[in-house]
Write a structure and sequence with these properties.
There is one protein chain. The protein is mainly alpha-helical. The protein has a single domain (37-215), classed as Orthogonal Bundle (Fic-like fold), CATH 1.10.3290. The chain has helices at residues 8-11, 23-46, 53-64, 75-78, 99-111, 113-118, 120-130, 137-151, 163-175, 181-186, 196-204, and strands at 84-85, 154-156, 190-192, 214-215. Strands 1-4 form a two-stranded antiparallel sheet. Strands 2-3 form a two-stranded antiparallel sheet. The longest helix has 24 residues, at 23-46. The radius of gyration is 16 Å and the shape is globular. Residues 51-188 form the Fido domain. GO terms for molecular function: AMPylase activity; ATP binding. This is protein adenylyltransferase. It catalyses: L-threonyl-[protein] + ATP = 3-O-(5'-adenylyl)-L-threonyl-[protein] + diphosphate; L-tyrosyl-[protein] + ATP = O-(5'-adenylyl)-L-tyrosyl-[protein] + diphosphate.
């Protein structure tokens, strides 16, 4: 059980606003919040040039404040002594003290339109490695990545992606950055930049990414 606050019995999974202990039901709350707020998140980012770490935090707050009272706060603030692992990999994500630096490295790549067009998978892998939050990371970084991609003149047909194959490529990208695993997977899915409404609808079609994290 992922109980980073140590109060699951009293306040439920990650202190969700409903106090739910059933993670499946919490994930349903996350999904509903995302569908409701993703349009607002895209609009908020539309006039932010270049995107900064504060924009990542704000996007998470916009998407998940209906679910978590700590939405918009990174792991250095919410759980500075805890390290996140997944799938048996204990070095997959940045340590709390390294989150901001990892995210800013990803944004430096993504704000460079030429780099973004050439290596959208590398940028997504860098964002995923930062893993700023206790939960809600996947959808948050997808929103940020979508904005960066479209600014560079491309979009990704996420509705055509296979979840299992994507997650395998993403895991390889995080463990072996620079080897092009995720860029190779995304290559057949690249399209021209999409209108804002198309971006929003594409994000709404996303399936839940991964499972609940664990303490490492």
């Amino acid at each position: 059980m992922f109980d980073v606050f140590g109060d699951f019995a009293e306040r439920g999974y990650l202190r969700n606003v409903a106090g739910l202990k059933d993670i499946a039901r919490v994930k349903q709350l996350e999904h509903r919040a995302f569908l409701t707020k993703v349009g607002k998140a895209i609009v908020e980012l539309s006039d932010r040039v270049p995107l900064t770490y504060a924009d990542i935090l704000r996007t998470h707050e916009t998407l998940f404040s209906p679910v978590y009272p700590w939405a918009g706060c990174d792991r250095l603030e919410t759980a500075p002594g805890a390290h996140i692992s997944r799938g048996g990999y204990d070095r997959m994500f940045a340590f709390p003290r390294d989150i901001r630096g990892a995210a800013e490295h990803a944004l430096e790549q993504g704000n460079d339109s030429a780099f973004m067009r050439a290596k959208p998978g590398a940028v997504l892998g860098s964002l995923a490695h930062a893993h700023p939050f206790l939960d809600g990371n996947g959808r948050t970084i997808m929103v940020v990545h979508t904005v960066l991609a479209n600014r560079s003149g491309i979009s990704i047909a996420w509705q055509e992606a296979d979840k299992a194959a994507f997650l395998i490529a993403l895991t390889k990208e995080i463990h072996l950055p620079g080897d092009g695993h995720l860029d190779a997977y995304l290559a057949p899915l690249l399209r021209e930049a999409a209108a804002q409404e198309e971006q929003i609808e594409s994000l709404k079609a996303l399936k839940t990414l991964g499972a609940a994290p664990s303490l490492g």
